[in-house]
Amino acid sequence: MSEAIRVLIADDQRVVREGLAMVLGLLDGVEVVGAVSDGNEAVALAVDLEPDVVLMDLRMPRCDGIEATRQLRERQPGAKVVVLTTYADDQSVIEAFRAGARGYLTKDAGGEEIRQALRRVLADDAVIDPVVQHHLVDAIATAAPTQSQEHSRPSAPRLPDGLTPREAEVLSLIATGLSNSEIAERLVVSEGTVKSHINHLFAKIDARDRAQAVTYAYQHGLA
Questions:
Q1: What's the CA gap between 173 and 198, in Å, rounded?
Q2: Is 90 exceeded by the pLDDT of residue 71?
Q3: Which pLDDT score, from 0 to 100, does residue 188 have?
Q4: Quick one: residue 165, left, alpha or beta (phi over 0 = left, psi -120 to 50 = alpha)?
Q5: How many Cβ atoms sit within 10 Å of the Cβ of residue 216?
Q6: CB 174 within 8 A of CB 185
Q7: What is the DSSP letter of 108?
Q8: Are the C-beta atoms of 119 and 110 separated by less than 8 Å?
Q9: Sheet with strand 127-128: strands edge to edge
Q10: Beta strand ranges found along 81-164 (DSSP E)
Protein backbone atom coordinates (compact mmCIF):
# COMPACT_ATOMS: atom_id res chain seq x y z
CA MET A 1 0.00 0.00 0.00
CA SER A 2 1.38 3.37 -1.01
CA GLU A 3 -0.29 5.35 1.77
CA ALA A 4 0.01 4.70 5.48
CA ILE A 5 -2.93 3.06 7.25
CA ARG A 6 -4.44 5.68 9.55
CA VAL A 7 -5.33 4.09 12.89
CA LEU A 8 -7.32 5.31 15.89
CA ILE A 9 -6.71 3.49 19.19
CA ALA A 10 -9.45 3.11 21.82
CA ASP A 11 -8.44 1.59 25.17
CA ASP A 12 -9.18 2.68 28.72
CA GLN A 13 -5.71 1.74 30.02
CA ARG A 14 -3.21 4.51 29.42
CA VAL A 15 -0.21 2.18 29.37
CA VAL A 16 -1.89 0.07 26.67
CA ARG A 17 -2.81 3.11 24.56
CA GLU A 18 0.68 4.55 24.76
CA GLY A 19 2.32 1.17 24.20
CA LEU A 20 0.21 0.46 21.13
CA ALA A 21 0.82 3.92 19.74
CA MET A 22 4.56 3.45 20.18
CA VAL A 23 4.65 -0.03 18.63
CA LEU A 24 2.41 0.85 15.68
CA GLY A 25 4.21 4.12 15.13
CA LEU A 26 7.43 2.18 14.50
CA LEU A 27 5.85 0.05 11.77
CA ASP A 28 6.19 1.02 8.13
CA GLY A 29 2.88 1.88 6.55
CA VAL A 30 1.00 2.63 9.78
CA GLU A 31 0.13 6.05 11.21
CA VAL A 32 -1.57 6.49 14.59
CA VAL A 33 -3.91 9.49 14.26
CA GLY A 34 -5.36 9.43 17.76
CA ALA A 35 -5.86 7.52 21.02
CA VAL A 36 -8.90 7.69 23.31
CA SER A 37 -9.99 6.13 26.59
CA ASP A 38 -13.65 5.18 26.10
CA GLY A 39 -16.26 4.32 23.51
CA ASN A 40 -17.91 7.73 23.37
CA GLU A 41 -14.59 9.40 22.58
CA ALA A 42 -13.83 6.69 20.02
CA VAL A 43 -17.05 7.32 18.09
CA ALA A 44 -16.70 11.12 18.20
CA LEU A 45 -13.06 11.17 17.09
CA ALA A 46 -13.57 8.47 14.45
CA VAL A 47 -16.38 10.51 12.90
CA ASP A 48 -14.17 13.60 12.96
CA LEU A 49 -10.89 12.07 11.74
CA GLU A 50 -12.26 9.23 9.58
CA PRO A 51 -9.35 6.84 10.26
CA ASP A 52 -8.90 3.80 8.04
CA VAL A 53 -9.25 1.45 11.02
CA VAL A 54 -10.25 1.77 14.68
CA LEU A 55 -8.49 -0.58 17.11
CA MET A 56 -11.21 -1.04 19.73
CA ASP A 57 -10.94 -2.47 23.24
CA LEU A 58 -14.09 -4.18 24.56
CA ARG A 59 -14.23 -3.25 28.24
CA MET A 60 -14.21 0.54 28.60
CA PRO A 61 -16.08 2.98 30.87
CA ARG A 62 -19.18 4.98 29.85
CA CYS A 63 -19.50 3.20 26.49
CA ASP A 64 -17.92 -0.21 25.88
CA GLY A 65 -16.36 -1.39 22.64
CA ILE A 66 -19.42 -3.33 21.48
CA GLU A 67 -21.74 -0.33 21.75
CA ALA A 68 -19.12 2.02 20.32
CA THR A 69 -18.67 -0.26 17.32
CA ARG A 70 -22.43 -0.39 16.80
CA GLN A 71 -22.79 3.40 17.00
CA LEU A 72 -19.84 4.01 14.71
CA ARG A 73 -21.13 1.62 12.07
CA GLU A 74 -24.53 3.30 12.21
CA ARG A 75 -23.00 6.74 11.67
CA GLN A 76 -20.34 5.59 9.21
CA PRO A 77 -21.36 2.28 7.60
CA GLY A 78 -17.98 1.99 5.92
CA ALA A 79 -16.00 2.26 9.16
CA LYS A 80 -13.54 -0.56 9.81
CA VAL A 81 -13.21 -1.79 13.40
CA VAL A 82 -10.73 -4.34 14.71
CA VAL A 83 -11.32 -5.45 18.29
CA LEU A 84 -8.13 -5.75 20.35
CA THR A 85 -8.92 -7.21 23.76
CA THR A 86 -7.94 -9.69 26.46
CA TYR A 87 -11.24 -11.59 26.04
CA ALA A 88 -11.24 -14.62 23.75
CA ASP A 89 -14.58 -16.20 24.72
CA ASP A 90 -17.19 -17.00 22.10
CA GLN A 91 -19.83 -14.60 23.46
CA SER A 92 -17.55 -11.56 23.15
CA VAL A 93 -16.51 -12.59 19.64
CA ILE A 94 -20.09 -13.06 18.44
CA GLU A 95 -21.27 -9.78 19.99
CA ALA A 96 -18.36 -7.88 18.43
CA PHE A 97 -19.03 -9.19 14.92
CA ARG A 98 -22.76 -8.63 15.27
CA ALA A 99 -22.01 -5.01 16.19
CA GLY A 100 -20.03 -4.64 12.96
CA ALA A 101 -16.40 -5.41 13.79
CA ARG A 102 -14.33 -6.84 10.94
CA GLY A 103 -11.48 -8.22 13.00
CA TYR A 104 -10.88 -9.69 16.45
CA LEU A 105 -7.43 -9.95 18.01
CA THR A 106 -6.24 -10.63 21.54
CA LYS A 107 -3.65 -8.45 23.22
CA ASP A 108 -1.10 -11.23 22.81
CA ALA A 109 -0.84 -10.12 19.16
CA GLY A 110 2.45 -8.57 18.08
CA GLY A 111 2.95 -5.44 16.03
CA GLU A 112 3.41 -7.23 12.73
CA GLU A 113 0.34 -9.38 13.36
CA ILE A 114 -1.72 -6.25 14.01
CA ARG A 115 -0.39 -4.60 10.84
CA GLN A 116 -1.33 -7.63 8.75
CA ALA A 117 -4.81 -7.59 10.33
CA LEU A 118 -5.20 -3.90 9.45
CA ARG A 119 -4.28 -4.58 5.83
CA ARG A 120 -6.64 -7.53 5.52
CA VAL A 121 -9.54 -5.61 7.03
CA LEU A 122 -8.95 -2.76 4.59
CA ALA A 123 -9.11 -5.34 1.83
CA ASP A 124 -12.57 -6.34 3.14
CA ASP A 125 -11.38 -9.60 4.70
CA ALA A 126 -12.42 -10.69 8.18
CA VAL A 127 -9.64 -11.36 10.68
CA ILE A 128 -9.94 -13.63 13.70
CA ASP A 129 -7.13 -14.48 16.12
CA PRO A 130 -6.29 -18.24 16.02
CA VAL A 131 -7.04 -18.59 19.73
CA VAL A 132 -10.40 -16.93 19.19
CA GLN A 133 -11.11 -19.19 16.22
CA HIS A 134 -10.60 -22.22 18.45
CA HIS A 135 -13.15 -20.97 20.99
CA LEU A 136 -15.60 -20.01 18.26
CA VAL A 137 -15.44 -23.44 16.63
CA ASP A 138 -15.99 -25.08 20.02
CA ALA A 139 -18.97 -22.80 20.68
CA ILE A 140 -20.56 -23.60 17.32
CA ALA A 141 -19.97 -27.33 17.82
CA THR A 142 -21.62 -27.34 21.24
CA ALA A 143 -24.40 -24.87 20.43
CA ALA A 144 -25.62 -26.49 17.22
CA PRO A 145 -26.68 -30.11 17.92
CA THR A 146 -28.19 -32.21 15.18
CA GLN A 147 -31.96 -32.64 15.05
CA SER A 148 -31.70 -36.18 16.40
CA GLN A 149 -29.56 -34.97 19.31
CA GLU A 150 -32.11 -32.29 20.13
CA HIS A 151 -34.82 -34.93 20.47
CA SER A 152 -32.68 -37.47 22.31
CA ARG A 153 -31.18 -35.39 25.11
CA PRO A 154 -32.62 -32.95 27.63
CA SER A 155 -31.74 -29.26 27.24
CA ALA A 156 -28.86 -27.97 29.35
CA PRO A 157 -29.83 -25.96 32.43
CA ARG A 158 -29.75 -22.21 31.95
CA LEU A 159 -26.68 -20.65 33.56
CA PRO A 160 -27.02 -17.51 35.71
CA ASP A 161 -25.87 -14.02 34.72
CA GLY A 162 -25.06 -14.97 31.15
CA LEU A 163 -22.20 -17.31 32.06
CA THR A 164 -21.04 -19.53 29.23
CA PRO A 165 -20.60 -23.28 29.87
CA ARG A 166 -16.82 -22.85 29.81
CA GLU A 167 -16.95 -19.95 32.29
CA ALA A 168 -19.17 -22.02 34.58
CA GLU A 169 -16.67 -24.87 34.33
CA VAL A 170 -13.78 -22.56 35.22
CA LEU A 171 -15.78 -21.16 38.13
CA SER A 172 -16.47 -24.64 39.48
CA LEU A 173 -12.77 -25.48 39.29
CA ILE A 174 -11.93 -22.27 41.15
CA ALA A 175 -14.37 -23.39 43.84
CA THR A 176 -12.46 -26.65 44.23
CA GLY A 177 -9.33 -24.64 45.07
CA LEU A 178 -7.39 -25.11 41.84
CA SER A 179 -4.89 -22.45 40.74
CA ASN A 180 -4.90 -20.91 37.26
CA SER A 181 -2.11 -23.19 36.11
CA GLU A 182 -3.91 -26.26 37.47
CA ILE A 183 -7.13 -25.22 35.73
CA ALA A 184 -5.22 -24.70 32.48
CA GLU A 185 -3.74 -28.19 32.78
CA ARG A 186 -7.15 -29.71 33.55
CA LEU A 187 -8.83 -28.02 30.56
CA VAL A 188 -5.83 -28.41 28.24
CA VAL A 189 -5.65 -24.69 27.46
CA SER A 190 -3.10 -21.95 28.10
CA GLU A 191 -2.93 -20.12 31.42
CA GLY A 192 -3.63 -16.89 29.53
CA THR A 193 -6.90 -18.37 28.27
CA VAL A 194 -7.86 -19.29 31.83
CA LYS A 195 -7.14 -15.73 32.98
CA SER A 196 -9.35 -14.38 30.19
CA HIS A 197 -12.21 -16.65 31.29
CA ILE A 198 -11.76 -15.57 34.91
CA ASN A 199 -11.72 -11.86 34.06
CA HIS A 200 -14.86 -12.25 32.01
CA LEU A 201 -16.81 -14.32 34.53
CA PHE A 202 -15.73 -12.04 37.42
CA ALA A 203 -17.21 -9.10 35.49
CA LYS A 204 -20.46 -11.00 34.88
CA ILE A 205 -20.97 -12.09 38.50
CA ASP A 206 -19.57 -8.84 39.95
CA ALA A 207 -16.85 -10.62 41.95
CA ARG A 208 -13.76 -8.75 43.09
CA ASP A 209 -11.74 -11.80 44.10
CA ARG A 210 -11.72 -15.60 44.17
CA ALA A 211 -13.39 -15.73 47.58
CA GLN A 212 -16.45 -13.90 46.27
CA ALA A 213 -16.43 -16.11 43.18
CA VAL A 214 -16.42 -19.26 45.32
CA THR A 215 -19.31 -17.93 47.40
CA TYR A 216 -21.24 -17.21 44.20
CA ALA A 217 -20.52 -20.70 42.87
CA TYR A 218 -21.97 -22.37 45.97
CA GLN A 219 -24.98 -20.05 46.07
CA HIS A 220 -25.87 -20.92 42.47
CA GLY A 221 -25.14 -24.63 42.59
CA LEU A 222 -22.03 -24.44 40.42
CA ALA A 223 -19.69 -25.98 43.00
A1: 11
A2: yes
A3: 80
A4: alpha
A5: 23
A6: no
A7: T
A8: no
A9: 30-36, 5-10, 53-56, 81-85, 103-106, 127-128
A10: 81-85, 103-106, 127-128
Which residue type does 192 have? G
Q: Are 62 and 38 in contact (CB under 8 A)?
A: yes
Beta-carbon contacts of 125 under 8 Å, excluding residues fewer than 6 positions away, are 102
Would you say the C-alpha torsion 109, 113, 118, 124 has a positive or negative sign?
Answer: negative
Q: Is 87 exposed, middle or buried (0-12, 13-18, 19+ CB in 10 A)?
A: buried
pLDDT in the model for residue 142: 63
- Contact predicate 57/12, CB 8 Å: yes
148 has a pLDDT exceeding 90: no
Domains in the chain: ranges and CATH: 5-134 (3.40.50.2300), 156-219 (1.10.10.10)
H/E stretch holding 185 reads helix 180-187
Contact (Cβ atoms closer than 8 angstroms) between residue 33 and residue 59: no
pTM for the structure as a whole: 0.62
Report the range out of 52-56, 159-163, 217-221 with the highest average pLDDT.
52-56
Instruction: Say if residues 151 and 181 touch (Cβ distance below 8 Å).
Output: no
- Asked if residue 67 lies in contact with residue 38, where contact means CB atoms within 8 angstroms, the answer is no
Nearest to 81 by CA among 66, 91, 94, 92: 66
